[in-house]
Amino acid sequence: MVHVGTGYDVHAFAEGRKLILGGVEIPCTRGLDGHSDADVLMHALCDAVLGALGEVDIGHFFPNTDPRWKGAPSKVFLAEASRQALQRSGKIVNVDATIIAQEPKIYPFISQMKINIAEALGVTVNRVGVKATTNELMGFIGRGEGIAAIAVASVELPD
User: Fold this and answer.
1) In the structure, what pLDDT confidence band is assigned to residue 68 with cuts at 50, 70 and 90?
2) Widest CA span in the chain
3) Number of H helices, E strands in the chain
4) Contact of 45 with 57, CB cutoff 8 Å
C-alpha cells in the first residue's frame, strides 16, 4: 500500500550564514537562520517522508536543543527518514517539493539539489521533483524575510 505524507518548513534570513537549499550552497548575501544548516527544502522533504510513515516530525528526531545537530547538514536528517522507511520494509516511491523564495533565483541549482536529495533517500533522480516559485512580493517571503518549502512523499509499505 502506498502512503503519502506532506512536509512544510520555513526559516528567516540571517546575516553571516551560508544559504543551503537541497544540500547546495547558493550564492546569496544572507543564509537562513536555524540550529542545523537550515535547509528548508531537506527539512520539508524529511517531514513528508516521516509523515508517510505515520511518524512525528523532524524536530522529534533531531531537536534543536541537541548540540549534536548544531550546524549539521540536513542531508543527514533526510537519510535518517529514508532509513526509517527501510526499517519498516518500505520503499520511497517518489518525492516532490516546491521552494518558495522571492530571492535568490533557484532554477540554476535544481539539478544538483535533485542529485543530493536522491542520494540522501537512496533513490534514482527521476523519483525526485524540485520546483521553485516566488510569493509575488506578498507576505514575509515576498518582502525577502525568509524562504519556505512544501513537500510530498509517497512511500510503499507492506500491509
Assistant:
1) confident
2) 48
3) 5, 7
4) no
Tell me the C-alpha distance between 61 and 82, whole Å: 13
Angle at 142 between CA 141 and CA 146, to 5 degrees: 25
Residue 69 contacts by C-beta under 8 Å, 6 or more apart in sequence?
Answer: 35, 36, 62, 63
Comparing CA positions, the residue from 60, 3, 9 lying closest to residue 32 is: 9
State which H helix or E strand residue 114 sits in. Answer: helix 110-121
Global pTM?
A: 0.95
| CA-based torsion, 71, 73, 77, 83: positive or negative | negative
Rounded Cα distance, 136 and 60, in Å? 33
The 10s digit of each residue's pLDDT in 76-94 is 999 999 999 999 999 999 9
